Amino acid sequence: MGSDGQPVMNQTQAPQNGEGQSPVTVLGISAFYHDSAACLTRDGQILAAAQEERFTRKRHDPRFCAHAIQYCLEAGEVEADQLDAVVFYDNPLLTLDRIMHTLAEAGEAGLASWLSGAPGWLGAKLFVERLVREELQCDVPVLYCEHHFSHAASAFYPSPFENAAVLTVDGVGEWATTTLGTAEGNDLQILEEIHFPHSLGLLYSAFTQYCGFKVNSGEYKVMGLAPYGQPRYAELILDQLIDVKADGSFRLNMDYFQFTRSMHMTDSHFEDLLGGPAREPESQITQREMDLAASVQKVTEHVMVRLCRHLRELTGRTRLCLAGGVALNCVANGVVQREKIFDAIWIQPAAGDAGGAVGAALMATYAHFGVARHRPHHDRDAQQGSYLGPRYGNAEIRAMLEHGGYTYHEMDDSQRAQHLARVLAEGKVVGYMVGRMEFGPRSLGARSILADARNPVTQSVLNLKIKFRESFRPFAPSVLDTRCRDYFDLESDSPYMLLVAPVREEIRKETPPATGEDMIAIVNQERSTIPAVTHVDHSARVQTVGAAEKPDFHQLLSAFEQLTGSAVVVNTSFNVRGEPIVCTPQDAYKCFMRTDMDVLVLENFVLYKHEQPEFKDDANWRDEYELD
To answer: Which of 42, 248, 283, 491 is the most exposed place for a label (fewest CB within 10 A)?
Structure first.
């Protein structure tokens, strides 16, 4: 929406980037719910994007994205008064309308929710323009883009497609929770919507909370837990909790949900239906939680497939673009792909609210300012590998290392790749920080922890001694794009780690059926020749690595393949549980020293743990971070 209440997409102006026209520079921002972020674009090219959490070190930081804005302006060499507009990813007035209607229907039962949420809404969300102008110290135009238009724009405009069907699915925007649309060139239209409180994302979040995990951060734990269970509750969910029509539209049975009137997702009726109270956070995970996770995952896949089939019929498009928090469910994405409903799929790497900053900036660029959409000349997308965050130069890193008295070894790119290949083959764990930081929740070889996928104990060691997280959590493989099909049944590239695919039959190993609830014993079974990245159901969340977007990581994988014959390594995010992915060299060094990592790479500098001086750290450092 524009600041005068009109939709940005309907305020089309004359094209701004024709011959003799100055470029259009737009800052998109998302904030005040979770995963605040900023994105800077010029004539539709993404110059920079980053989440606020990476700078503040507060995971999923929802606060105004002042640090991310500062980074984007500096990276783009743009002064605030040179911006053509700042675009907020949401319409606060429509969101407030939904909240007020919901609380009015809840009556006295909704009072606690209002008292909890009102200060944030009245103090920040309704005064976005004032906050922006105070931060930027100039009278920049401020526009608004509806939440699901931001998601849809983030999915389509950076995609490699000239036209596509567009599906967005999340918890809730203003009123919409699911949208089906179509796009071509500059034009993006939403054709059908499903409205709050009926939400696939909130259904999944309800089970996340019921299984003892935190809403808006623990959903991926449910996805990772699901393969350990059986979908014993799936029919019950479909019979009692959600009514799914043939076209994928759905309605929740609100008799079992409490999120419209309290801070809790479910109530006693939900517990009675599913046979008991919710799991206490941090308590032992039982077979019941495994089966609940498997069940809600199965239902989610069922709904997504039906939505996609209907969207294909509705639009006639052969390509699909996906965004919204549910689009981070890479298992469901893999199911949709294998159903071959569409010829090709592109998913926004920052599919959650952070990516709304990208979509808001691009929606304004193409729909408000009328800049002609252009795509890269090659077959790749315009997301640039999602390497859109800060990079730190060798001179800056050397100064940090010298100041701290840290022992390091300097190598050129080729030496580094060869050396790290040997280190990984020896079984060591490497913290790897090279190039611009990734935008989105996945580490893609710029802020990653790497290990040998062939080692059967790698998964449990990484989980318990380095990541400090639950033993059941799977790790993803990074594989040379030219070798992907030797390991995985995946017919397309997956550069953003957003597709789960089966490990090929010929590299699987026979294992006895997993029994009992000893998660470590189950995890440590060798299910393939790359056991560290083979989940209990013989699946893997794949990242394919090409030379174009990340030449240093491609060079490392190539060197590892030449040395070992394996083109696959474990790639997990460079952080510990409860902490955001590292951003700066200082963040990386602290994480390295606080864990059992063996080697740290900071651009062209390689550090060994045993060579470092004694690390003096606050014994209670983990209290800084909220476990999720």
So the answer is: 283
The residue count for the chain? 628
Least confident segment among 235-249, 258-272, 486-500: 258-272
Pairing of strands 142-144, 37-42: unpaired
Contact (CB, 8 A) for 89 and 28:
yes
CA distance 218 to 575: 16
Containing H/E element for 420? helix 413-425
404-408, 416-420, 520-524: which range is least confident on average?
Answer: 520-524
Residue 482 has pLDDT above 60, yes or no: yes
Q: Could you give the 3-state DSSP secondary structure of residue 317? A: coil
3-class DSSP state for residue 221?
helix
Same fold: 8-158+351-382 with 200-346: yes
The residue extents of the domains of the chain are 8-158+351-382, 200-346, 394-624
Residue the block writes with tokens 């026209």: 21
- The answer on pLDDT for 65 being more than 50 is yes
Say how far apart CA 199 and CA 249 lie, in whole Å.
Answer: 10
Contact 382, 43 (CB under 8 A): no
Cα–chain-centroid distance for residue 113?
A: 28
Q: How confident is the model at residue 457 (pLDDT cuts 50, 70, 90)?
A: confident
Is the pLDDT at 72 greater than 80? The verdict is yes
Residue 528 DSSP symbol: B
Rounded to whole angstroms, how far apart are CA atoms 2 and 189?
17
11: tokens are 């305020």
Q: What 3-state class would DSSP assign to 355?
A: helix
Beta strand pairing call for 37-42 and 25-30: antiparallel
Question: Average pLDDT over the chain, rounded to whole?
Answer: 91
Closest CA to 494 of 542, 456, 452: 542
Tokens of residue 351, six digits:
């599919």
CATH code for the structural domain at 8-158+351-382: 3.30.420.40
pLDDT more than 90, % of the chain: 78
394-624 fold: DHBP synthase (3.90.870)
Topology (CATH level 3) of domain 200-346:
Nucleotidyltransferase; domain 5 (3.30.420)
Q: Which residue's structure tokens are 């701004």?
A: 16
User: Alpha-carbon distance 543 to 499, whole Å?
Assistant: 8
Q: What is the pLDDT of residues 514-561, one digit of tens each?
A: 666 666 667 667 889 999 999 999 999 999 999 998 999 999 999 999
| pLDDT for the residue 3 | 38
d(CA 401, CA 58): 25
On whether the CB atoms of residues 294 and 539 are closer than 8 A, the answer is no
- The span from the CA of 209 to the CA of 203, in Å, is 10
pLDDT at 5: 35
For position 7, what pLDDT does the model report? 43
List, as one string, the DSSP characters of 392-419.
--HHHHHHHHHHHT---EE--HHHHHHH
**Could you tell me the pTM of the whole model?**
0.93
Sign of CA dihedral 400, 403, 407, 410: positive
